[in-house]
Amino acid sequence: MVLPLQGIRVIDLSRMLPGPYCSMVLSDLGAEVIRVEDSKYAYSNPPPFYQKGRFRESAFNSILMRNKKSITLNLKDEKAREIFYKLIKTADIVVETFRPRVTHKLKIDYKTLSDINKSIIYCSLTGYGQDGPYGGIAGHDLNYVALCGILDLNRERKRFSKNEKEKPPIVPGLQVADIGGALNAVIGILGALIEREKNLEKKGQYIDISMLDSVFSFIPMVAAHYFSMEKNEGNTNENILQGDFPFYSVYKTNDEKYISLGIVEMKFWDELCNVLEREDLKLKQMAQGIERDWVFGELKNEFLKKTQDD
Description:
By secondary structure, the chain is an alpha/beta fold. The chain has 12 helices and 10 strands.
């Protein structure tokens, strides 16, 4: 089977999670990925490790760096850059995650490389994009999900006690901004490859991906709810997909496990009520106020009667 990106060469200058995840997807699609590594980079082999013969190998790298080749170059050195420029002549794509303007100092920016190879597609993946008030600031996933508003959504809900204090935000269990930015980078690169085939000069282009922008685009439901709230007096800040309603929530079972209940449509709520033999709850899917707290409590008790397997 011929993979869709077979014959496409990617030069990967990225580090950590987002850039390598992007180039991993490209390699899975058949691209030849060559990582340009810095032997002095302290975080190139992150834990956890597993034993592989006589050596301990990074499990993280075993996943993200699969199917890739690598070369070590000190891009501050002129001779190393000459080798790098030779690679660029044969390349289709460059992926980099340096902070803005670092590539200009290293003389590996888009303008420099496109003068060597006009067909090069150059993707910069950063926290906040190439310009703007945060452009030069370092960041990690937690900073991006905090600024875009997702962190504020990721907390326990107030339910059964009106006097209970609001719970603090919970650090998400996965890196949604890092992965989201990486996937947007893949989409941008694939789009650029298609466009390059259509233009007569076969000229590449520059792609600027911001992880903050990427992850903000993941919350259209929240944004729609927020903006409609501002325009319509009397709207509440409750969202059916954020755990404010009993039909879309998580419940503990009798064996100390959990069940996720994801119901929006009325027909599925009816089915749940039938299975639980709770005809009295059928008309209370969208109950408000104290009555909603009562429905939450009733469902909590119903699930506590059963094991997860039940």
